[in-house]
Write a structure and sequence with these properties.
Layout: E1 19-24, E2 36-44, E3 50-58, H1 77-93, H2 122-127, H3 130-139, E4 151-154, H4 167-173, E5 176-181, H5 184-201, E6 212-217, H6 222-227, H7 229-238, E7 241-247, H8 253-260, E8 265-272, E9 282-285, H9 301-308, E10 312-317, E11 321-326, H10 330-334, H11 355-361, H12 364-368, H13 383-392, H14 395-409, E12 416-419
Parallel strand pairs: 4-5, 4-7, 5-6, 7-8
Antiparallel strand pairs: 1-2, 2-3, 8-11, 9-12, 10-11
Helix pairs in contact: 4-5, 13-14
Length: 420
Amino acid sequence: MVACFSGAYASSLVEPEPVWIRQIPDQEHAGIGNGLITRGILYRDEQDELVIHMDTFITLAWNGSTFYPEDDEFMTEELFEHLRGTMLKDMVANGLGYPKRHLYAYGKYPALQCQIDAILSVTNDLRSGFAVKRLLELFYDFKAYRWNGHAINLGAGLGVGGDDPLALWAALHGTNVIMIDGVEERLARGLDDVKQKSEEFGRTGLIERQLNIIPIVSYLSPFDFDDGYLGNSIRDSVGNSVEVIKIDIDSFDCAIMKVLLRSVEAAVLVLETQPMIPPPLKFSRHYHPDFTDEGLLGCSLGYMVEMLRPEYDLLVATDQDVIFVNSKLRTFIEELPPGLVFPWTRFPLHFPIDEVDCFRRSHVADYARDLRYGNHAPWISSVGELHRDWISAHPTKAHGRIVSNLSTWYPGEWSFTLDF
């Protein structure tokens, strides 16, 4: 069932940067060290009123990818109100705002954890593996779940200098980790990366067992997991429950995921999205035995949210990756102190998270402008403008425009789902 909220799509949405950052001079805060930085983020509350959430950081810890909120004693109520008033005044003077709630979105609550700016990269936090490691180390206090150190990594190969969001956790906490990739050389790099991280950081897993990696060189098809040798390998190696599943195969990712989740439950899903298709529109590439990389690949955030609910909840999305968590963990996560799951904000987490809000805050439109799909993108010069048009249009209009654009860009034979 689609949840609808007040507000409507603007025919021409001008979306300002909903972030305000100001550094507070050292001399105003004797003893603090390097002074403070306050970051204000606009959002709409449950009454659809414009509200500002503010986080303050010690500048010494402002390192570009991970932020450490300062202790409450550093931010006095008087200082907070002064900064909040200044921020509101600046925004009103410049005609800034933030879009109302989004029609057709499944999620309800603001996604401030997805917000990026010129300094913060949520993408780096996910790609480096620190996000998955931090999440699962927090989740291990949830005793009702069966923690076993098992994982499935589909698309475990690495290019030269690449990162795998699962590698750090596997090195520290993994026991039985299945790593599958279609290219042996890339898989070898992925294996080396896990081994190097294990040697660098040392084993800190809660379960006193050695890391057992099961490497498999194979291209994937849904049948292989449903009734083929890969399904048998998974059942023999990790059973029907794992801590993490990662899927990044640049093809028919959701077709594989749908079959895999019929037989295996995970606490955390780490997935790669198709950033060109904005939610609430839902895109997924179909499996075909003669698959080629012509056309858009993978599946969109909107498709994932619809396919995975209610068993899995969206937690955070970036211009490349997305994390979902098992809904059994929903209450546990909501009750964690703010700032633990995402060190860069103390905004409280509530589910379900608005996937449209998260998508817009993650600056996917900026990322999509620079996308390259080999020789398949003669339209790349106009993709940024078209992408913004798809985001701002009502879904029923955007759907028709996308179908028309894709048919023009990719006239060859390729099969996909696109709905709203």
